[in-house]
Amino acid sequence: MASTQKFSLRFHKASVFKEAISAVANVLDEVILKIDEDGLKGYGMSPDKAVFIYLFFPSDGFDEFNVDKEVSFGVNVDEFKKVLSRAKSKDELGLVLQKDKFKVQFIRGSTREFELGILGDVNPTQFVELYENKLKSKEFNAKIVTDGTLLSDALKDAKLVGETITLKATEKEFVIECKGVTSNYRTVIKYDDPACFDNDIKEPSTSSYSLELLYHVLSGAKQEVSLEFSSNNPLKVKYNIDIGFLEAFIAPRVEE
């Protein structure tokens, strides 16, 4: 009898995937998971098309990675997040697709298992082509690598003032600004500050984005974060999540 199992993955820290899905749960309604010999990839776009998300976890970083052939399917992000929230700190994670059953397992002595519904026949071609042919190779005029915790704190401060965040990269410093009706906020990071790990400024750039969207995207950043942008262009955010990484592309907000 032929096996009905399409893939089986096992990773030693369930909390890693808990953090990854939590980071996109307030941005995406659903995520397309693609599993092939390279690893596990996740693609998603926010309902308003303001944010595109790409997640990647390489196959050689898993404790077990068994896939017969490439497979893609969609998952409701909120349901996936709720299930992953039940992961304990020492749980291993098992992911299995068998027939049309997506199984999420927490393994530590015993095995706790949830079955999630999948979102029908999903063709990831549109998202794959958008990422591989356009977004992945897009060049920007300014790149800053800084501390993720510092960025999150700056955005928390800015939320007290307004809803739009403006990023400015000059020849000497990186500035985060937020202007409200009666008050303003700014954080300045000079390129020789300890909080600036790297920078590449081809030309001065200024662009504005939704503060709320950026705050949610950065929620999974624990260490350094790369920000790339050009004036009035999308913002590329990238940071590592254990063996993998998250990339987000956020549409600019043009002030009238």
Task: Provide structural commentary.
By secondary structure, the chain is α+β, with helices and mostly antiparallel strands. The chain has two domains: 5-135, DNA Polymerase III, Chain A, domain 2 (Roll), CATH 3.10.150.10; 142-227, DNA Polymerase III, subunit A, domain 2 (DNA Polymerase III, Chain A, domain 2, Roll). Helices cover 19% and strands 46% of the residues. It contains five helices and 18 strands. The protein has helices at 14-25, 77-84, 125-135, 148-158, 211-217; strands at 5-11, 30-36, 39-45, 51-58, 64-67, 71-76, 92-98, 101-108, 110-116, 142-147, 164-169, 173-179, 184-190, 196-201, 205-210, 224-229, 235-241, 244-250. The strands form three sheets. The chain has a nine-stranded antiparallel sheet with strand order 6-2-3-4-18-17-16-10-14, with helices on both faces. It has a five-stranded antiparallel sheet with strand order 5-1-7-8-9, with helices on one face. A hairpin with a 1-residue loop joins β8 and β9. α1 (14-25) runs antiparallel to α2 and α4 runs antiparallel to α5. The longest helix has 12 residues, at 14-25. The protein is elongated. The relative contact order is 0.18. The model has no long low-confidence stretch (mean pLDDT 92).
